[in-house]
Amino acid sequence: MKAIFKRTSLLLMGALIGISTVQAQKSPQDMDRFIDALMKKMTVEEKIGQLNLPVTGDITTGQAKSSDVAAKIEKGLVGGLFNLKGVDRILEVQKLAVEKSRLGIPLLFGMDVIHGYETIFPIPLGLSCTWDMAAIEKSARIAAIEASADGISWTFSPMVDISRDPRWGRVSEGSGEDPFLGGAIAQAMVYGYQGANLQDQLRRNDEIMACVKHFALYGAGEAGRDYNTVDMSRNRMFNEFMYPYEAAVEAGVGSVMASFNEIDGIPATGNKWLLSDLLRGQWGFEGFVVTDFTGIAEMIEHGVGDLQTVSALALNAGVDMDMVSEGFVGTLMKSIKEGKVRMGTLNTACRRILEAKYKLGLFDNPYKYCDVNRPKRDIFTKEHRDAARKIASESFVLLKNAPLAAQKNAAPVLPLKKQGTVAVIGPLGNTRSNMPGTWSVAARLNDYPSLYEGLKEMMAGKVNITYAKGSNLIGDAAYEERATMFGRSLNRDNRTDQELLDEALKVAAGADVIVAALGESSEMSGESSSRTELGLPDVQHTLLEALLKTGKPVVLTLFTGRPLTLNWEQEHVPAILNVWFGGSEAAYAIGDVLFGDVNPSGKLTMTFPKNVGQIPLFYNHKNTGRPLAEGKWFEKFRSNYLDVDNEPLYPFGYGLSYTNFQYSDIALSTPTLGKDGSVTAVVTVTNTGKYDGAEVVQLYIRDLVGSITRPVRELKGFNKIFLRAGESKTVSFTITRDLLRFYDYDMNYVAEPGDFNIMIGGNSQTVKTAKLTLK
Length: 775
Ligand code: NOJ
What we know:
alpha/beta, TIM Barrel, Rossmann fold, 22 helices, globular, binds 1-deoxynojirimycin, GH, hydrolase, Periplasmic beta-glucosidase, Glyco_hydro_3_AS, signal
């Protein structure tokens, strides 16, 4: 696939830009000369040292802890450190490298800045539901400004792993199930972090290097279990999973992280086809490859050799930097002596790390990211927080909005009126530390308002906001503990379930509306948080049932890092607003949407199944030879289940608004497309409701007959528009031959003549259709 989206203008963000020291323009020859001269002075040991990214201590994931890092830095045995927070500490460590090591080579300081630094944006899955590339780029831009102000020059983001399995907790960190959208987001994020392309060598001190991860296919682990085996055909890889990585490379991403999983039986970390032939050979990647954490040492457990063997395997495959394993510093010297690794291979890897440092401008000024005056000025500013609040409110997906069952013709429950008493009830209702969501390493966990606190503050003098916890997160205390690690405790309540429920019902009795804050804790998704049951946890379900029995309007305000199974909720709860984990400003953003100051416009980027047995369930599936006839949910000897239909609960692209949008039929500029031309597909979208609102207009295409089987539909374009109540706008998509290409059986990237269905609509299932013929 070729990138369709080009960068949104950073000029729009001029106001956001803080301090900027622009490096003098340098030619690639200047860089080569500089690095040649430096490498001439380096010992073999020092070259290996550049490839070493040891644990700093104080880290959030993993098992290993290495001590005496300082001594290693002084000996030139460290290339960078990661997840160290605070510009003062980073300055101190950088000084060790620059002033105490023989050659004074500066260190890279990396961090998992995944969805913001201290100003936290929605978890990436939520962010993707905005379908707003400018907003996503802006979130990365702000993250770069804040992280760089605190000494960080490198982020381990974007995570672009396509996943179709919500059992996998890390779906929260990615952009959902679609490669086209995922590719666009990957590019927006790379541009946001890196600003001008690294190759331009104009890196400002508020732009940082990005790292696309996890290369490759990490989201396709069997049974949704983290770190599990992956096995897929090349055809599926290239048609359905690889594009977002390629798009990031095309956008100039400076580094790539290898994934934990195997590919075709060889762990990605030691897979030469993946890291060299494809990534560098075919895609032209020029940056460096880092392992994911102990990826090298883990190859021992994969069963491909001892530490020396797997370290050599990794380097020879194309890995340049060893995160945590210390397999390179520990064994490469020996492997070189024994002829298992060539000096030239080491030199290439070392050069790539030095080039990254050069392009960041660290040789010009190793303290470029160590301006101790910046944090105060650039981190968690009002401007950044305002942007985060707006973007968070765009990420929420309104899953249902109906009147109370007893008042069929009344208005839907949302938006709420700014009057009376609103009770916030549920274990997610008053927890500060769970607001930012998983993978927020630099978050100030206790400084962000909980939902209850935020609503109270916003509605002071207008709405009386009350609160009760109502239940613990999960009945099983041990499960709750596993699901609330890293300072995200929900402070388990020792009262009995009944006592908690009684209190909640008392609070509910005094309220006009109940906002039920239920779902997952932030650490129920993310790394190593796979689940096999995806319903609301037991005690929360009991609470919700009891709240509904009061007969009062209940808004399920759903916190989650993944699609959940919500059949019962869809049937019984009048309004469901999925708020994911919205970040530092989530409470205010939720208030903005609940009380109608913002009309929700988020659209799902991952299918919500009806039950776990349907998984993997995704919108761009193949038809099979025995599809169900339209309108049927079961037929004997057809591809279906006895106990549930094939349909999702909420399809890809789905999301409601407080208003309604009507689509006209599609007008094609011509029904046939020649070799070089293009066709425009135009629809008119009308806001037929009473509220102004935004709509994500989606283009899907189906190739009706192919030399290999083709998906029933694939996203090929989208456009987010804003319409005032009553307003109409025309939206047009340009369809070229390029948009119709796919990898055929022989892995040629082709567009085959024939008929195509062109579909446009507000989600992947409700579309208008027109026919196009490719000559
Ligand atoms: C392991 C995770 O898989 C990866 O995403 C992260 O960047 C590294 N740890 C570093 O924290």
